């Protein structure tokens, strides 16, 4: 920046000098370039021009003073501009440094307590339903019209879960009712035939009785008496046959009544209902599927009872007993902090893994889902020990842990610890 200003000042001075030189007459400028000499004047030429110019001998115009004055003015202007543009930087102001007082730190004092400390066995397990029911329609061959529940929905006993299309059953029911009417009419006809056969039988009995009376007196031939007896036997057989036909017709009525009742029952079964209260675990059917025996529409967790099934090595089975407390947590959801109990231990040990299954009861919780992977800490023993807050433990670089103890004189001392189990909050 300073070099740039110097160049600009040099250009200004040069222009000032040129300006002064250009203001002088050309002759004076030329004369100034030669040394002083005497001049001879021609009187005739003066008279011919009609002008009189008088110069003193050896006198010249004032050329050098003018140049000198311009140079001095340029130098003065240079000094003024330089002094104005090039300024010395102001001395830096003194910085006052204030040392802040050390920050205070607040500490909390906790009392060391003594109590029962539980020793636990950590295992992993999967959440399963205590009783998982597969709800399938009782009527086969019908199209599913609608499914009324979804997963995780709570249902009550008797609640409708799905409905089947009953159009075909309604038609079969009307046909069965008509066939029942026909069967009942046949019974009536058979009963009338039976009554007629019974009347014929009575008539044959009376005719035979009269013929036998006449035959005792010899008024009728033996041939006529035999014919009367044959008619009586025929009438008796007709009554028996008519009675059998009546019973057959009545059986037909009962069969039609049974078919009618079956269709009526199937109509009520087109509404698939929950046998017990629980929660829907899975919805397997969709609208338009055809019902079939054993094909579930939904699966239901009875009474929403869940359990945690965990594997325990054979060498640690003797540490676990039914009824002991269990702390259940999740590695993915910190909200899951549940307490359960060991329900049972399977009597069979897997020959490949050498582990046995342990069933742990779980409390009702909306965060639990069938198939979740959880961690369980099973209480195996209990002992007495000292307990301190976890926040008071200070890990050290060498792997040890320390705490600070407050003495009676309010002096703090560091103490190395041998840590035991970490207790749940």
Key structural traits:
six-stranded antiparallel beta barrel; 25% strand; 16 strands; 6 helices; 36% helix; 425 residues; alpha+beta
Please explain how this structure is put together.
This protein has 425 residues and is α+β, with helices and mostly antiparallel strands. The protein is 36% helix and 25% strand. The strands form 4 sheets. The protein has a 6-stranded antiparallel β-barrel. Strand 14 (394-395) and strand 15 (401-406) form a beta hairpin. The radius of gyration is 65 Å and the shape is rod-shaped.
The helix content is 25-40%
Strand content: 25-35%
| Oligomeric assembly | single chain
Indicate the radius of gyration in whole angstroms.
Answer: 65 Å
Overall mean pLDDT: 78
Largest sheet: 6 strands, antiparallel, barrel
N-to-C order of helices and strands: HHHHEEEEEHHEEEEEEEEEEE
Unreliable segments of 5+ consecutive residues: 19-65, 84-92
The overall strand count is 16
**Count the helices. How many?**
6
């Amino acid at each position: 920046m300073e070099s740039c200003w110097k160049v600009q000042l040099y250009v200004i001075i040069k222009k000032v000098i040129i300006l002064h030189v250009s203001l002088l007459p050309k002759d004076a400028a030329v004369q100034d370039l030669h040394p002083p000499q005497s001049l001879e004047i021609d009187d005739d030429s003066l008279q011919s021009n009609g002008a009189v110019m008088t110069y003193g001998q050896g006198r010249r115009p004032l050329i050098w003073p003018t140049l000198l004055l311009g140079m001095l003015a340029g130098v003065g202007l240079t000094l003024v501009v330089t002094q104005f543009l090039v300024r010395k930087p102001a001395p830096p102001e003194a910085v006052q440094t204030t040392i802040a007082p050390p920050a205070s730190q607040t500490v909390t004092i906790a009392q060391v307590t003594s109590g029962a400390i539980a020793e636990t066995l950590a295992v992993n397990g999967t959440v399963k339903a205590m009783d998982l029911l597969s709800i399938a329609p009782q009527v086969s061959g019908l199209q599913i019209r609608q499914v009324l529940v979804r997963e995780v929905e709570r249902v009550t006993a008797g609640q409708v879960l799905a409905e089947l299309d009953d159009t075909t059953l309604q038609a079969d029911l009307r046909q069965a009712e008509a066939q029942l009417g026909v069967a009942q009419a046949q019974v009536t006809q058979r009963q009338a035939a039976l009554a007629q056969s019974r009347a014929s039988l009575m008539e044959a009995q009376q005719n035979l009785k009269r013929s036998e009376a006449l035959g005792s007196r010899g008024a009728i031939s033996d041939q006529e008496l035999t014919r009367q007896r044959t008619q009586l036997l025929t009438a008796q057989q007709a009554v028996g046959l008519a009675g059998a036909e009546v019973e057959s017709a009545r059986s037909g009525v009962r069969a039609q009544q049974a078919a009618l009742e079956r269709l009526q029952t199937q109509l009520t079964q087109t509404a698939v209902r929950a046998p017990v209260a629980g929660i829907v675990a899975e919805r397997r059917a969709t609208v338009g599927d055809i019902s079939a025996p054993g094909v579930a529409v939904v699966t239901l967790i009875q009474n929403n009872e869940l359990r945690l099934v965990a594997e325990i090595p054979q060498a640690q089975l003797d540490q676990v007993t039914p009824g002991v407390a269990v702390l259940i947590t999740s590695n993915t959801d910190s909200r899951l902090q549940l307490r359960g109990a060991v329900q049972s231990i399977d009597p069979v040990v897997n020959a490949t893994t050498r582990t046995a299954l342990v069933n742990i009861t779980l409390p009702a919780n909306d965060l639990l889902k069938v198939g979740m992977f959880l961690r369980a800490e099973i209480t195996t023993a209990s002992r007495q020990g000292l307990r301190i807050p976890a926040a008071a433990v200070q890990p050290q670089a060498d792997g040890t842990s320390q705490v600070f103890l407050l003495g009676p004189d309010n002096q703090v001392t560091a103490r190395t610890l041998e840590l035991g189990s970490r207790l749940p909050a």
